[in-house]
Structures are given as C-alpha cells and as structure tokens.
Amino acid sequence: MANEKEFSIELKPDVAKGSYSNLAIITHSHSEFIIDFATMLPGLPKPEVSNRIIMTPEHAKRLFLALQDNINKYETQNGQIAIGGEQKATFPMGGFGGGAKS
C-alpha cells in the first residue's frame, strides 16, 4: 500500500496461483487485525482456513480504503455488485474481539 510511488515486488509462482476464499473471518485486538480466509463448500463439514493475514490497525484501514476505491471503480465499469441472502455471523476467537464478514 504505497503512496503513488513506483516500486517493485516479487511474486513467486506458488503465491501467484492464489487460493479461493468465500469467507473471511475478521478479529482484532488493540494492536492488530487478523483476517482468516476460508472456503465453505457443500459436502465439507466445516470451513478450512487457507490463509491468515495479520496487520496493524493503520494498515487494515489502508486496505479498507484501497478495497473501497477498487470496488467503486469496478462498479462504475461493471454495475453494482449484488449481495443477496448472506447472513452475518460472529465467530469468537480466543482473546480477540470483532466479528466475521463474508
């Protein structure tokens, strides 16, 4: 999350392939935000966390603003993203406050 400066990053092939997630569980403490990315699929007994990202509150807000900007750009080009029939749930995580977002 840079300030309009050019920079170079390395993207290794095993990371470049990515992983699918249709569930993000977000928790936080005073000093960090934790986002667990999981996949819920029919026939599987419970979602499996594939990635966990831990970041400072400042970087979490920068991520939020970057996502908000990119969603606005996407919707300008492609129309509004419909969110239908989703339920919000809370997943208590030991020692951390917060809730889940999907």
Description of the molecule:
There is one protein chain. The chain is α+β, with helices and mostly antiparallel strands and 102 residues long. 25% of the residues lie in helices and 25% in strands. The protein has a 4-stranded antiparallel beta sheet. The two termini are 23 Å apart.
Sum this structure up briefly.
Helix content is 25%, strand content 25%.
Largest sheet, strands/sense/barrel: 4 strands, antiparallel
Distance N to C terminus: 23 Å
What portion of residues is helical?
25-40%
Kindly report the spatial arrangement of strands forming the biggest sheet.
Answer: 3-2-1-4
Average pLDDT rating: 85
3D shape? globular
Helices, by number, come to 2
Query: From the alpha-carbon coordinates, what is the Rg to the nearest angstrom?
Result: 16 Å
Counting helices, strands and paired strands, the structural category is alpha+beta
Number of strands: 4
Order of helices and strands: HEEEHE
How large is the share of residues in beta strands?
A: 25-35%
Q: Which segments are poorly predicted (pLDDT under 50) over 5 or more consecutive residues? A: 90-102
Protein traits:
alpha+beta; disordered C terminus
SSE topology sketch:
Blueprint: H1 13-16, E1 23-28, E2 33-39, E3 48-55, H2 57-78, E4 97-101
Antiparallel strand pairs: 1-2, 1-4, 2-3
